[in-house]
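Justification of computing resources. Each target in the renewal requires a structure prediction run like the one illustrated here; the chain below, 262 residues long, is used simply to show the kind of job we budget for.
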Amino acid sequence: MTTAGMQNGPATRRETLDHLAVLERLQDAFHAGIDGVDPTAAVPACGDWTVRDLVEHLAQIHHWAAAQARGQATPPLGEGPFELAPHYAARAAELRETFRLLAPDAPARVLSHPEPLGPGPVSFWHRRQAHETLVHLHDLHAATGGHAREDLVGDIPPEVWADAVDEVVTVFQPRQVGLGRMRPLHVHVLLQADDTAGIGTWLLGSPTSDRAREIVPDVTVTGSSRALALLLWRRLTPEQAGLTVRGAREDLDAVLAEPIVP
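Resulting structure tokens:
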């Protein structure tokens, strides 16, 4: 897998994050929130999804990721409808047990390009599932309250959100290009997180990390790492996220309109 981006501050320290501990905490929070919301409630920023769709999606993704970590075919889960809280709990437990049994550096199938899946370590899924759950926990809270806002998941350290930004810049956006889902970006967006030790900095759309240091960004976006992550995942607009934008707003809008995440 190729990667792109310019990082410093907490983004370069993602190896120090305990992604499994983060994942367990987020899974517990997601599970606890299921019974408190109407399964038919709409999920803001997720098209026509309901809470039922959201919960079943995350349960399925945990199940699928566990199979990829094991290097096996994904067993079918059945048609449903499922009782949501027990269904999610079972799939979350499956994922945790899979990670407990496999060494972090054990071989697995991971997200890649130009093929969608390729060889990589199990630890890839520790990180990926932590961030998958983080974003969808925000979605669950947004559905509970009826609208999305920046502070819905307020007790997660900035370093975790910064790592989620790093994943979009260095994994997802280059992969989307590598899979032919989008063309390379011609606008370069500098993302600056102001809530970490030092300022986490990333250049979205850079072809290589070395080249990134030579590029003058067209747009600079500054704010909390949480706000930046929710912007990249299309959960919030810059205004909703309280971000400061310097440069042509139409250039930023054009970048955000591209499928930089799946």
